[in-house]
Amino acid sequence: MKRIAFLLVAVAAVAGVVAFTAPPSGHADEEAAPIFGVKIPSGYRDWRLISVAREEGNLNDLRAILGNDVAIKASREGKLPYPDGTIIARLAWSYDPLEESEKAFGRLQSFVAGPPKNGVQFMVKDSRKYASTGGWGFAQFNDGKPADEAMHNTCFPCHGAAKARDLVFARYAP
Amino acid sequence: MKRIAFLLVAVAAVAGVVAFTAPPSGHADEEAAPIFGVKIPSGYRDWRLISVAREEGNLNDLRAILGNDVAIKASREGKLPYPDGTIIARLAWSYDPLEESEKAFGRLQSFVAGPPKNGVQFMVKDSRKYASTGGWGFAQFNDGKPADEAMHNTCFPCHGAAKARDLVFARYAP
């Protein structure tokens, strides 16, 4: 009985810490994405930066690639393959002109992140669980809801273009 | 004597922790920038992300705006003015096409951060020390070395375009 009481206190303490540190955008209780069963990792918006990117064309966005501690260490050291436990998050926002910059420079040349766009994506490394897809589980969430199965079937083939880099497009930006 | 030995051990332990956690790009012993006397804040590359941006035209780069804990809290809450102790870092890299993406999409549309470009900039809020420049001290470092005084004279006038947002161009990207 004492042991149960201790466990409950310990669990409550851990839950408290998680609730305190989790940013508004990360909720551990979200629905899992199809095929790979990945959920939105709690607190991902507070992860450190791996790199930034921009998609032109139809996607037309600005992106940040964040990583959990395992991902940051591995990408900073440049060692491949990424170890189990790596989680990489790809956030994206609309590509919006910055009005104040136009005033400062006398022409429009600065673009900044607007509202979220093109969903949030995650790559989760688990070499046994996801052995058939290069050791990676993939997920995309649009407004917090998992994208459909058809969309998730496109992840692994597309990332195959980065096979020489363990399926990860992003390199650590120093 | 025992106390000195203890202190040495404690200092060594702290130094060890700092050496372990500080990223390669942050050194506390760098030269101070002119006018405002700002040094490169130790560990800034590990700060959390405020937003991302792109400069077209001659600057032609991809950017990340990171903040220390005070900056993250303030920018997330959207409260103005930023409190004393806020430090905002602007990193930038060259705008490089991503070859692997061209293979995946069949056309060139993805651009990623290449080598560092256009220096690293900092804004430090100290409403008393920097009262004559809106409460902000500004600094730019190129390859770890402070830019010259003429360059630092351009910071405050240019950021004046964002006067309604306490001289900060970046908004928190959710």
Largest interface: A-B, 48 and 48 residues
The end-to-end distance of chain A, rounded to whole angstroms, is 52 Å
- SS strand fraction of chain A: 25-35%
Number of H/I helices of chain A = 5
Q: What average pLDDT do the residues of chain A reach?
A: 87
Regarding quaternary structure, how should these chains be classified? Answer: homodimer
Summarize the biggest pleated sheet of chain A.
Answer: 7 strands, antiparallel
The number of strands of chain A is 7
Q: Specify the helix fraction band of chain A.
A: 25-40%
Poorly predicted ranges of chain A = 1-26
Rg result of chain A:
19 Å
Order of helices and strands of chain A: HEEHEHEEEEHH
Shape of chain A: globular
Helical/strand content category of chain A: alpha+beta
Which labels suit this protein?
alpha+beta, disordered N terminus, 7-stranded antiparallel sheet, 7 strands, 174 residues, globular, homodimer, 5 helices
Structure in words:
- Chain A has helices at 2-21, 69-77, 99-105, 149-152, 155-159; strands at residues 48-55, 61-67, 87-97, 110-116, 120-125, 136-142, 145-146.
- Chain A has 174 residues and is of the alpha+beta class.
- In chain A, strands 1, 2, 3, 4, 5, 6 and 7 form a seven-stranded antiparallel β-sheet that branches.
- The longest helix of chain A has 20 residues, at 2-21.
- Chain A is globular, with a radius of gyration of 19 Å.
- At the A-B interface, strand 1, strand 2, strand 3, helix 3 and strand 4 of A face strand 1, strand 2, strand 3, helix 3 and strand 4 of B.
- Strand 4 of chain A pairs antiparallel with strand 1 of chain B.
